[in-house]
Amino acid sequence: MPRTPHTSPQTLRLFEALLADPARWRYGYDLSKQTSLASGTLYPILMRLADQRLLETGWEPSDEPGRPPRHIYRLSSDGVTLARQRLAARASVAADTATARRPRPAVRARTAGGAA
Amino acid sequence: MSAPALTDRQQREESPTRRLAYTLLAAAVRGRRGRPGGTWGEAILAEFSETRGDWEAVRWAAGGLRAVWQERRARARHLPRHIRISRRVAAVVVVGTLAGLLVNQFALTVGYHPSGDMEPTVWVGDRYLLDKVSHRFTGVAHGDVVAVALPEGTVLKRVVGLPGDTIECRDGGVFRNGARLDEPYLPADPESARTDCRTVTVPPGDLYLLGDFRLVSLDSRHDVTYRQDAVQGRMLTRVWRQVG
After folding, report:
1. In a 3-state reduction of DSSP, which class is residue A91?
2. Checking CA distances to A8, which of A93, A100, B141, B229 falls within 20 to 30 Å?
3. pTM of the shown model
4. Is residue A114 part of a domain?
5. What is chain B's mean pLDDT, rounded?
6. Which chain B positions have a beta carbon within 8 Å of A69's beta carbon?
């Protein structure tokens, strides 16, 4: 079965960073710093998101003379929806595994009693 | 022409490592002709001057190379089918040719034997498969057929003595360290197989080699010196015999 897209830990970390202030345009270097993703990991994810119209991109002219324009990013409205959904899905999975790993004795006792 | 990502003043202040990282990344993005590269390559390049210090610059450039490679592959996927196929074919041909040349040079090659001195194992005009690698790890052993470089060309002979062995001949047979050799590879005709030699002890670094066709072979019996480091490889098998 193919893996659900946009669920890798790296992509989720990027979603978190972009969702902090979804309306703000972000730079690649800042995103790399904030998510501690190397450029070789970050940019392929950005490319994928932009291809699927989950990410808006633009060029921001630099105010410094001689500096080239910088590429800027923010989530599209579809992107925001998807990112929230993916992060929520991860949170619920994490909660499930946490309860599965540490079943409370009280619950087990009640189940046992019910079965008897 | 695209604008440089670094101003002249910044360029001058950059350390050599940072300049090298930037140059490599720019070359990967824009190619040798310096045309503007793909969107993402230019984006990564434009962020380069944000990095602080050598280490971060190198990491940025290295990751950038990876991303640029991916961008190119993604672009290539949208090319027309016949171009993709012909590119793939060209890549296979180039890589295959290079691999073939390397194998032929260093691992496995075909040799041509122009003489009758190794009959009946190898005939005049036979081609044989030569393993050029394994003897470097295992050395050569008694009974191996080896190709050795001599000033006049490459010869094919059989290893009869290794350094330290004492070789002598009695009653037309060969004795190594006092024991008579069983040599099933010799010609059936006793006259062609008969071996006469002076008793010698093989010096360090040398090999005592004989041709299987003892009657005509010119070899260690005739004061030809074969150096161990002149061994080119071990014959695996004959591959092709010219008929007629």
Report:
1. helix
2. A100
3. 0.56
4. no
5. 90
6. 46
